[in-house]
Specification:
Length: 105
């Protein structure tokens, strides 16, 4: 588990840096038990403009062009991406139906 936040400011513009601050602030607001960052899980996507922190639990905290933070969940089998307004909504969508049934037991 890696827990290093690292952004290359040399490739980011002022709006990207503002997004970076929003993403870091959102990261600080999640429960400490969820703050495990994927290896090389922070960065800036020059193609999409998203600044992100990818968590090991399957949720990615992201923002682009100084817009509000979004929480991204990717289905790695299909490549489908879903964006959520809250961390709780995104986290709920990382579990399979079977996992949710086991949690509720």
């Amino acid at each position: 588990m890696e827990n290093t936040i690292n952004f290359n400011l040399n490739e980011m513009g002022s709006l990207d840096i503002a997004s970076m601050h929003k993403v870091i602030d959102a990261y600080q607001d999640i429960p400490s038990s969820d703050k495990y960052i994927m290896y090389e899980g922070t960065g800036f996507n020059t193609s999409s403009g998203y600044v992100y922190i990818a968590l090991e639990n399957g949720v990615t905290i992201c923002s682009c062009f100084n817009h509000s933070v979004e929480y991204l969940v990717t289905d790695y089998d299909t490549g489908e991406e879903q964006f959520f307004d809250t961390y709780v909504e995104a986290l709920a969508n990382t579990y399979t139906i079977e996992e949710l049934e086991n949690i509720n037991k």
